[in-house]
Amino acid sequence: MSKHFCNCTDLDCPHNPHNQESPNCDGCIKINLEAGEIPTCMWFNMEKGISSDSKYSALNFAKSIMEREGKKQ
């Protein structure tokens, strides 16, 4: 059986598959979506300078949020 991929370094999180309490990241993603937050693994990628030219890049996501928030004001 292959190990679930997870680059999260938050080993205190009960949903982190590295601490053997959870088989995958589903619980973490659910909690973050409900709270309107970004999972730790996404912050890890941003801190390491990982970027993409994809329309689904973190930069384009942030831009779309800023544009949407600007329209609400």
Strand content: under 5%
Question: Structural class, judged by helices and strands?
Answer: mainly alpha
User: How much helicity do the residues have?
Assistant: 40-55%
Radius of gyration: 15 Å
Number of helices: 3
Main beta-sheet strand count, sense and barrel state: none
Number of strands: 0
What is the string of helix and strand elements? HHH
Keywords:
73 residues; single chain
Offer a quick outline of the entry.
The chain is an all-alpha fold. It contains three helices and no strands.
Overview of the structural elements:
It is a single chain. The chain is mainly alpha-helical and 73 residues long. It has one domain. Helix content is 45%, strand content 0%. It contains three helices and no strands. The protein is globular and about 45 Å long. The model has no long low-confidence stretch (mean pLDDT 78).
Give the topology, please.
Elements: H1 26-35, H2 40-47, H3 58-72
